[in-house]
Each structure stands twice: as C-alpha cells, then as structure tokens.
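[step 3/7] inverse_fold.run input=structure_tokens len=645
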C-alpha cells in the first residue's frame, strides 16, 4: 500500500512538473523594434516584433502583453512603466505599433513581452530589448548647422542631373570638390551616463571619436533625393568618451551628392560640395545634459583623398596624411574655420535600413604577369566592393589599380562593359608598411590590374613598391540571411550560387541593376527579383526604403519614374514604363504578403491610387500600349525598346 501511495505521489509530482514546464514552453524570442535589434535613432512610431517559439506540437500564441520603461531596473521590477499594453488577445507577433505617451528624443527605452498559449497560460517575460529615439523633428537639432570646407555657388548647382558625360555644360559639374576633414574638441567634466551622436554627411561620411571610427558602416548614409530627405545615423558613443578632453572627427565624400565630369560617369549632378551636420547628446549621471553641435567653431582641412567619385573611383595621397587629426591635442592651427553652408533642403530622417558593410574578404587565387608593366590579381569571384592594400615602398611612388569583371585578349583588365575609366590610385608616404582601402566608392570586379608596383614573389626591383597584400572586400547591404539552398545536384548548386552573387552585388541603398556602370534604383527588378531575394535575405527594411524613394519621386500627375531616387530624368520610354512604375503598387502589397506589414501599405496607398489614376489617363479602353516592354527586344531595329512584343 505504501509503495502504491508513493507511486501515486510521484505520478502527481511528475504531472505537476510537466504542467509547470508546459506553462513556460512558449517563449518570445528575437525581439525587434522596426525590424531591427536594439536600434538607435528611432523617430517614427516604434513597431514591435518577436518570434513565438515552443518545442510542443501545436502550441501557439493567443495573446501578448508589452511593457516599456525608460529605465532598465524599472522594467525589471515592472513598476512605473511608461506603457503597458495590457493583455491583448491576438496571435499577431509582427509590427505591433506603440500606442503609449509621446516619446522623448535621444532617449533609451527598454521593453519586453510575454505571451499566452493555447491553454491561456502566460509565458515568462522575454529578455529585455531596447531602442534609442532619434531627433524626432528638425527642431531637435537645435543649434546644429550644416558645415563644409567650401561651397558651390547656386549658379553652378545641377539638380536634377544630366545623363551621360555632360561635356557641353560649360563650368557645371566640372570642378573637383575637396574631400574634407572636420574636427572639434570638447570637454566632459562629469561621469557620462549616455552619449549618442547623430550625424549626416553628404554624400557619405565616416565619424571618428578620439581617433576610433564609430560603427562599421560603409557608404553611409544611404542615397536619397537630398532635396526631399537627408538621412542621418545614430551611434551610442558612451564608451568612446574620455573624462576630460575629447575630439570628434569627420571625413565627408561625394557619393551621389556630387558627380563631376571626370573619368567614367553615368550622370553628372551637383547638389553641392561635401558637408556634414552633427549633434552629440550627452547625459551625465547627475541628470544634467549638454549637446556638442556642428557650427563655425569646428575646423576643417583637405584630407588625403584627392579625388572621389561613386562612378569614377578614388585617389589617395598618403603624403597628405595628418596623424592624430581626430584625436584630442592635435595641432590644427593650420586648418581653416568651417563654413556654414545651406541645407540641401531635405527633411532630416533616420536611416532605417540595414547599413552597407564589408561582408566578405577574398584573397587572390592567382597572380599573372601579362607584360612588364602590370600584374593581374584574380580573386576567383566577381563581386561588388573595394580593394584593401598593404604596400611598402619609396615615398611619392604612385600605384594604380584598375578593377574589372573581364580580361581582354591580351590578358589585361577591360572595363568596356562596366564603365571606363574607373581607377584607384595610391601615392606612398614611404617608410613602414602602409594599409589603405577606399572610403567613398565601389565597383563590380573579379580582377585587379596593378601598375607601378609588384608582388613580393616577382624578381626584385628596388624602384617599384612591393604589394605585400591585396584583397577584395565585398561590400553590400547587410540585410540578414533568412535562407539558403543546397541539393545533390552540383549544377543546381552552382546556379544558385551564381544567382545569389548577382543578388548580393546589387543590394545597396537601393536594388541596383549593376554594381558599376549604373548603380541606380531601376524599379522593375524590385518585383521581378523580389520573390527570389526575400527567400535568402530579410529585405523588409530595404524595400520599405524603396517605397519611400518612390513616394518622393512620384510626379504631380501621378507618374512614378523608372528609377528612384530620380537623380536624372530619363525621357521617353525610360521615364514612363508601366512595368517599372507599377512597382509602387506591387511592392507595398508584397510587404503585406511577405512580412505582414500593413504600415507599408498605409503609407503607400495615396501613391498607389494616384499612379493607377495616371495609368488610367494613358489607357485606351483600359489597355496600355506604351513602355519598354521586353527591354532590349531583338527586332528589325537595333536592340532596345519593345519592337515585336
């Protein structure tokens, strides 16, 4: 009898423990705000997402509760929350909009969520996540000003751009702009609780705090129509600051903000010379705060980047380097005071997409010597990116790098199909080993032709610099991987790899059609390739940005042009092709079907209706008869717009 009672007691304890375990078998994981993990610079309505997981078959979420606090310890105790959604009966776990009190700018908020399962039992609270709000409106930039090294007179601005070389434009887009350094020293005399830097540099920038680069972004911010929107980025720099003297340093390049008439260009354009705007918000442990802003008190100087073009390449003269330029105590007495320059006109908006980054690194698989003046580095993979150089040699020697996808019959790099000339050049300062990578451009290539230097394995030449190392740095949008493909057929695997590399090399701040010759946001590929891309990468944020680009590019009559941002007006079929413009209707619907994002549809709906009205005005009995159709159609004329289709 005792054994039977012990058995019943053990069985009861086992059943109780199983029920207790089941209570906590449902959990919320992978918490995101606006589809990013712990984002910095949230200025629109936060939207929360998570993934409900359970090891039990058929178990799912039937309700959720979100709580939010501006203090992590307060969130842990669950008291004094700024927002408590309460128990919401719903299986929805993506893009749940915040509905609490107004949020303060430049403030860190902590949040977590718990779920209820099929048995109406609550899960444990999730791990804590956070976001930091941005500068929610333009007034939050307070006294921060756009500053530059130089300015371009209004008479020489060129917006929109001109397609082609623009050789008949007189003085327009002719001059090289200075690629400037900017610096500012400041003091922190108390213990810093939090410091966040908000910055935009156009076309692109790099931010340094006490000599250390903030973040690992490449070509930030993303490209936009700068007359309508200027993106900024945010960095938490609390750990970068010293107690006492600090220094903020910035270098700014051209990007699509200025493309001059030199080397290869798809278009020429001039919104102005490179410029920056910055605000560092510092909060101290005692509750006080201060802001460091860009203004006339900053100093500026030309950087060692002597030429930079998104289409033409980049030149760097290491003899012009100024060691310690972004560190406190540097002697900038020879620098000039920064100029205050006009805003490009666009509203300041936080960049919400995943940044471009260096995603893979390739070493050469072989080096060949086609003649006495060149070496060809073959990286074995055609990819978008830049080079990274390690070199040693005599001061003043110039090394020239010509990247390309193909070799000609003479085994030299040819750029005939990808836009020529695109060149990197590096001038040595001499002495120790030197390391360099371009900052403000990129290209699509597999091969690099090196002139003016030699690999260490060749016959010793005392006059030539020695390339100690040359690598291909693959750069692209860092949208997270969501899937992959492998099977028993190596043919299918190879086809997948080819397509995947084409996708990767065209994921930038827009979905490009090529990473060299054009680099523009042609819209038809967003929906023609969209289904394929989204099985491999989470492109929600990238496509949300493309929708914003289309909204800004839409004309008053409803036309959505073939490219967005529309840096240049391609007239004729290249500006009004329904298969291109209809991306403005297809993409928002895709965002709903793929990701459950109704916010994208809401913001795009006025554009969608307006574009449909435009197409109706061009239709005959509801049938359209204009556009590119089967682009590059083979017919009786030279291949181009639709001829037989």
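[step 3/7] decode complete -> sequence:
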């Amino acid at each position: 009898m005792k054994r039977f009672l012990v058995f019943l007691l053990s069985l009861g304890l086992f059943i109780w423990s199983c029920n207790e375990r089941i209570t906590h078998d449902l959990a919320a994981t992978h918490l995101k705000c606006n589809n990013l993990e712990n984002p910095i610079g949230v200025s629109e309505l936060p939207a929360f997402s998570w993934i409900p997981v359970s090891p039990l078959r058929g178990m799912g979420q039937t309700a959720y509760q979100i709580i939010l606090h501006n203090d992590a310890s307060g969130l842990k105790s669950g008291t004094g929350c700024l927002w408590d959604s309460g128990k919401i009966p719903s299986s929805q776990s993506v893009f749940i909009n915040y509905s609490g009190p107004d949020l303060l700018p430049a403030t860190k908020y902590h949040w977590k969520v718990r779920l209820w399962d099929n048995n109406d039992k609550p899960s444990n609270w999730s791990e804590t996540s956070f976001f930091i709000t941005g500068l929610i409106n333009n007034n939050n930039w307070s006294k921060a000003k756009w500053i530059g090294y130089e300015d371009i007179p209004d008479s020489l601005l060129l917006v929109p751009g001109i397609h082609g070389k623009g050789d008949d434009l007189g003085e327009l887009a002719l001059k090289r702009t200075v690629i400037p350094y900017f610096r500012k020293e400041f003091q922190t005399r108390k213990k810093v609780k939090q410091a966040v830097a908000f910055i935009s540099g156009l076309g692109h920038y790099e931010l340094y705090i006490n000599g250390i680069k903030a973040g690992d972004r490449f070509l930030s911010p993303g490209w936009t129509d700068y007359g309508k929107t200027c993106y900024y980025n945010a960095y938490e720099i609390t750990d970068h600051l010293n107690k006492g003297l600090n220094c903020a340093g910035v270098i700014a390049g051209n990007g699509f903000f200025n493309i001059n008439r030199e080397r290869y260009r798809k278009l020429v354009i001039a919104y102005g010379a490179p410029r920056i705007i910055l605000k560092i918000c510092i909060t101290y442990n005692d509750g006080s705060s201060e802001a460091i802003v860009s203004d006339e008190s900053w100093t500026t100087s030309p950087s060692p980047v002597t030429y930079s073009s998104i289409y033409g390449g980049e030149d760097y003269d290491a003899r012009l380097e100024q060691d310690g330029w972004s560190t406190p105590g540097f002697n900038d007495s020879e620098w000039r005071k920064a100029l205050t320059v006009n805003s490009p006109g666009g509203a300041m908006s936080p960049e919400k997409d995943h940044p471009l980054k260096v995603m893979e690194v390739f070493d050469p698989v072989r080096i060949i010597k086609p003649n006495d003046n060149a070496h060809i580095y073959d990286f074995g993979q055609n990819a978008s990116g830049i080079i990274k150089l390690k070199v040693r040699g005599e001061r003043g020697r110039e090394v020239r790098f010509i990247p390309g996808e193909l070799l000609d019959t003479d085994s030299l790099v040819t750029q005939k199909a990808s836009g020529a000339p695109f060149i990197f050049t590096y001038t040595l300062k001499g002495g120790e080993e030197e390391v360099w990578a371009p900052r403000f451009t990129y290209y699509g290539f597999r091969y690099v032709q090196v002139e003016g230097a030699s690999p260490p394995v060749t016959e010793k030449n005392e006059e030539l610099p020695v390339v100690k190392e040359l690598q291909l740095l693959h750069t692209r949008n860092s949208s997270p991987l969501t899937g992959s493909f492998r099977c028993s057929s190596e043919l299918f695997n190879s086809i997948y790899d080819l397509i995947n590399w084409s996708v990767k090399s065209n994921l930038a701040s827009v979905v490009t059609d090529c990473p060299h010759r054009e680099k523009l946001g042609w819209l038809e590929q967003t929906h023609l390739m969209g289904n394929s891309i989204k099985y491999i990468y989470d492109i929600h944020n990238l496509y949300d940005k493309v929708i914003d680009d289309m909204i800004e590019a839409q004309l008053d009559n409803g036309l959505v042009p073939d490219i967005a941002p529309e840096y240049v007006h391609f007239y004729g079929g290249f500006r009004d092709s329904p298969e291109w413009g209809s991306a403005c209707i297809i993409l928002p619907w895709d965002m709903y079907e793929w990701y459950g994002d109704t916010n994208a549809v809401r913001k795009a709906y006025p554009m969608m209706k307006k574009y449909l009205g435009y197409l109706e005005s061009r239709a005959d009995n509801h049938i359209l008869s204009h556009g590119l159709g089967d682009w590059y159609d083979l017919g009786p004329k030279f291949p181009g717009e639709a001829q037989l289709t």
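[step 4/7] annotate
Residues 560 and 582 are 8 Å apart (CA to CA).
Residues 18-23 have pLDDT under 50 and may be disordered.
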